[in-house]
Amino acid sequence: MAKRKPVSIRDVARESNASLTTVSLVLNKRDGRISSATRERVLKAVDKLGYVPNRLAQSLQAQKSGFLAILVPELRHVFADPYFGELISAIEEAANEAGYKLLLEVAHKQDIEQKRHVELFQRRFVDGLLCLGSTNRDDFLGDFVGSDNAVIIVNNHLPALSLNSVMCDYRQAGVLAAEHLIDLGHKDIAYIHGAAEVQTASDLRESFEARLASSGIKMPKNHAADGLYTEAGGAAAAAQLLKTNPNITAIMAGNDKMAIGAIAGLKNAGLSVPKDVSVVGCDDLQPSLYSDPPLTTIHTPLDEVGHRACTAVLALFEGKQEHVTETLPVSLTLRNSTCGPRKIR
Amino acid sequence: MAKRKPVSIRDVARESNASLTTVSLVLNKRDGRISSATRERVLKAVDKLGYVPNRLAQSLQAQKSGFLAILVPELRHVFADPYFGELISAIEEAANEAGYKLLLEVAHKQDIEQKRHVELFQRRFVDGLLCLGSTNRDDFLGDFVGSDNAVIIVNNHLPALSLNSVMCDYRQAGVLAAEHLIDLGHKDIAYIHGAAEVQTASDLRESFEARLASSGIKMPKNHAADGLYTEAGGAAAAAQLLKTNPNITAIMAGNDKMAIGAIAGLKNAGLSVPKDVSVVGCDDLQPSLYSDPPLTTIHTPLDEVGHRACTAVLALFEGKQEHVTETLPVSLTLRNSTCGPRKIR
DNA sequence: CTGAAAGCGCTAACAC
DNA sequence: GTGTTAGCGCTTTCAG
């Protein structure tokens, strides 16, 4: 089983009494002009020697690596976050179908300072880059503006930088969530938000508030709290929110994680969800199914986002496309964390 | 910003009036014999042209790729599973420190049939391979036995194949869980297991039962159920278990996922956790903190497993080590899903 | 101290 | 139909 000395195309040529060219042609199916006798001989030799072309040599020659990199922020256990995980799974599937391999890149501070993200292309590590979890503070992404590198922002967009992106319609998400709560009769509504530097987070919040406002519902300043994009943050925010404003009957959270945290925080404060307080999340990730109660949330089609993003980055690389800005529709997933407000019951 | 024509070492040589050799020597710090004047000139040229060496060419020449691949099973949304995620995060950290890049490989059925996993090495895609979520049915891993490829089984071991591995002590885990339940006074204990083809799952279960037995507690056949390694499976198993044996006071689950599912199933059946039934999990992943009640579970040091596995695979690749079989100790994490049995309260 | 030249393994013009 | 040859971009003997 051991393979000390790898077999090269040269060995195949020798074994089959053919030239390098012939072997190469046969292997790459450009063998219209090769006699079937020779082809057979070559194929037999390939089989006998167990030859497989060295990819490094192929890539060097072809001037492309066949790799796509996924860039994620430097967070503790990023890959354990189902949000990134779902996106990565979807991207992997699409990349695999297209014959590409996936490279994992974490935006370690050092790497960014040394512009390693640009080197990824310069050094021919990758043909394309998919950026997950980007924020408005990621100035380094500016290095890609105007470059001819195939880069795409996945499920976000950066207003300050004109970069390609594929994302969900978070404005629509805000509207749907607001309308759901309005329909249920809620008037005293609070909001737990994620980081303001995430553009889609702002989009979501703005459109949510705007839709509320258009139905005559105002959200005072003290009805909003930062959930830090974590369960713990969501729990703390919910507890504090209800302590300050006991008449709140519904909470919208910027993502499922914070919503699940909020439910925990509420229960902890002796309140029942949804009887006392309704909670709505956003993302519709797996955990929202197993929260107690199961979470009513906005479904964002992350699978499709991942697929499209991957397809798009390849189109960019191949020069088939110049710019990409796709926005995918979202929908409301009704589960059991919402009901009418306690007053009118 | 656009870089149509990448700059090569040749350009640097020309710009600095030096030879290829000289430039290469300077860049690789093998410049003991280069005059500092020349060095300066070269460095200046490098800077001016923004030269970065092409990694494909370097790798081709060095006969190593600088990549490590992570092989995961083909499950729906694998990467969204926090178990794999934590492992991947840990591996990424270690790989990054060692200057290696990570490749994602999913064991798609087709790829396995075509022996793509072996090609990973033959084609020089990677220098080493880390296998996550392997099972006793993964015959293809046999292709690596006796080969000189750097392969390591992460957090598992395959008795049928002598392969390198780094894992947690699941036998100890079984003992700790059993002792915890025994100490609390439980006598009527059930077990929700994952797939039997996962060796560590069998280890865990066997040692759990053995420890119980040594304290005179028998677990009848009908006190065990398959949780399919999923939340839904855990929920169904728990419900069925208590329907058949209403006097069960504690349940051990093969992992956190099934434990969390079990809690949901129990609640759904109108039982309270831990008052009516105690539940113990295994893994201590993030979600166990936010379950309701927070889960008492066996802490498996996945971070360390990932780190060690990565270090080990590199040691194997560099020939510094021949065989690796590490087993890391686990511990009990006490939270609120367990208490004494209802009878003796 | 520096450079010419060979070679890593492959592909593709361009002969023959 | 098939083979020769020149690279892809880099490192590394080996001369000078």
Provide structural commentary.
2 copies of one chain form a homodimer. Chain A has 345 residues and is of the alpha/beta class. Chain A folds into 3 domains: 9-53, 434 Repressor (Amino-terminal Domain) (Orthogonal Bundle), CATH 1.10.260; 67-168 and 302-328, Rossmann fold, CATH 3.40.50; 170-300, 3-Layer(aba) Sandwich (Rossmann fold), CATH 3.40.50.2300. Helices cover 40% and strands 16% of the residues of chain A. Chain A is built from 12 helices and 12 strands. In chain A, strands 2-1-3-4-5-11 form a 6-stranded parallel β-sheet, with helices on one face. In chain A, helix 5 links the parallel strand 1 and strand 2 (101-106). In chain A, helix 1 crosses helix 2, helix 1 crosses helix 3 (36-49) and helix 2 (20-27) crosses helix 3. The first copy, chain A, is elongated. Chain A starts with 8 loop residues before the first helix and ends in a 12-residue tail after the last strand. The model of chain A has no long low-confidence stretch (mean pLDDT 94). At the A-B interface, helix 4, helix 5, strand 2, helix 7 and helix 11 of A face helix 4, helix 5, strand 2, helix 7 and helix 11 of B. Strand 2 (101-106) of chain A pairs antiparallel with strand 2 (101-106) of chain B. Chain A binds a DNA duplex (16 and 16 nucleotides) through helix 2 and helix 4.
